[in-house]
Amino acid sequence: MKVEIQISNIGESVELEETSLLECLRKKGIRIRSSCGGHATCSDCVVKVKSGGKSLSEVNFKEKKLLGNVYYITKERLACQVHSKKGESIDAASEKIEVEVVNLDP
Ligand code: FES
Q1: How far is the CA of 32 from the centre of ligand 1 (A)?
Q2: Which residues line ligand 1 (CB under 6 A)?
Q3: Which of 43, 56, 89, 106 has the maximal Cβ count within 10 Å?
Q4: Residue 82's closest CA among 12, 23, 4?
Q5: pLDDT digits (tens, 9 = 90+) for 1-35
């Protein structure tokens, strides 16, 4: 399964690999703020899911603890906790997901 993430506010896209979305963004040279280094304690790495998302991992306990249990309203996720969903067959062989990075590093 190929999961392509379009970053709407900068016009770039990355393919979500085995690592977190935060790592994929960094690998591509997209500077996203992250003061906790990906340990889900700072909330700097927030991304807003603007469309798609069925092939992303479920919101986990660390995200709920930091952002609250309101994903269905805010559509905010922590890039350091977002992975592609594993072990599930998604009907489409690939999904395009659009997100907006809230805190880009200048
Ligand atoms: S990098 Fe700090 S919460 Fe994701």
Answers
A1: 10
A2: 34, 36, 38, 40-45, 78, 80
A3: 56
A4: 23
A5: 688 999 999 999 999 988 999 999 999 999 999 99
Alpha carbon of 22 to ligand 1 centroid (Å): 8
Element counts in the chain: helices (H) and strands (E): 3, 5
Distance in Å, CA 29 to ligand 1 centroid: 17
Four-CA torsion 93, 58, 99, 94, nearest 10 degrees: 0
Q: Whose CA is nearest to atom 3 of ligand 1?
A: 40
Kindly report the pTM of this predicted structure.
0.89
Instruction: Compute the mean pLDDT over every residue in the chain, rounded to the nearest whole number.
Output: 89
Each domain of the chain, given as residue ranges in start order, spans 2-101
Residue 85: per-residue pLDDT: 86
